[in-house]
Amino acid sequence: MRFTARGRLLVGASGLLAAMMVGLPSQAQRSPAPVLEFATATCGGSGELEVEFLLTDDIDAPVHPEYRYTVARTDVQTGPETSPWREGDLQGTLQPGAEVPPTGEGALSGMTIVPGDTSRVVLKAEIDRTTADGSRLETIVVQGEADLKACAPVVPEQAEVPDRVWGPYGGKRTIPTQQNPGGGQTTHPGVIRVPGGWNGYEYWMAHTPYPGSNSAWEDPNIAASNDGVNWVVPPGLTNPIDDQPGLPGPYNSDTDLEMGPNNTLYVFWRVVIPDAAQERIKYSTSTDGVNWSAPTEVLRSSMPDRRPLSPALIYENGRWVMWAIEINRSPNRMVYFEGGATPAKANWGPMQTVSLGTMQNGKEPWHLDVAKNGDSYIGLLNDTDLASTGRNGDLLFLYGTTPTSFASQRFSAVPRLKPAMHDHLYRATMYADTEYGKPGYRVWYSARMALNPDVWNIQQTFLNGAAVHGAP
Known about the structure:
Oligomer: single chain
Largest sheet: 4 strands, antiparallel
């Protein structure tokens, strides 16, 4: 794959790019402009290209702390140049209103998802340079561009392996969060699809922002989509649904989203209260996806007795049931609870151990999602190295005909390593579907790139081989 990248392009006599100068200082006083550079282009299994650009302060220029650079406008176009260009959508933190971080403190990231036959992408950004008090000095136009090699989809006939459920690593999805700017790092996706739509959207997601593994942001958020790729916050909704301060105080984690009775959407999450040595699973409900009820407890646990992690719930046969990962003692184990007509804590029975068969060597369960598929149960189990918290996580496909006994494949359904994107897999969500006329499972999974600090993101992929397990 060949690429070209251009840094900043300031206004010049050619008129190729026009910049508006407002109170322009002399050349000797001017601060260098930020730099917009092409970063990566990743070919996804579905045949789409993820093209990412970074906007940074000029590392070779002297620091001018009295100036601020703020994104005023972005414009992304895709080629080829010989045909009419298509306007593209830009996801990520490179959005109007975002401030360019100071030198050495990171970058704004903008990503556009384009068809695999796109040969060229050009991104232009207008940047306002202002003084510390907000007075605008000038508007600068910068540009980055990339020439791309074609990306072809992985067709199921080429990818299926007998008796296996597996697929390629996913395409990155930018999910809006309560961070500023939105669209930052997040994890713990729980996705449902409502054919025909529910309150204006066919896909709904619960997730927890987690920039740099900072638990102060790890609160339940809601997003919606009509294609499963482009996600928004429904108009009128203010995230998060619940807000905790983060370590060393209480913090949230582990969202799950389910449709319950009476066309009501339920979001579940876990709350850890270190000072009280307690953990709680809570839920909130909505009939429109915008207005959510006050949090209600599902389960309360004392840490010395039990610690059910990553709850996964289903409403079936007029009652709620729940699976989780009990982490009180290593090796962790999958557990199951039977509830009543509501998820309220008074309705839950005793914790039961679930059979998983043999785990991968040196691994134990960590995070979980379970779904109903006809009369059977399917799931994705995220494992971890023994006595660790998500290290070297894989995603194992689960299949069972009863809620307390599952068969677990002893290999990851998704590659753990995606270059420059993730090296540890985390909590995932899925449902049975078809692609290219072949049965399989549509998956959104969270993943981590182990850096300092960590980088979290959500990816989307499709698992093949579902015919083995009786999917439609």
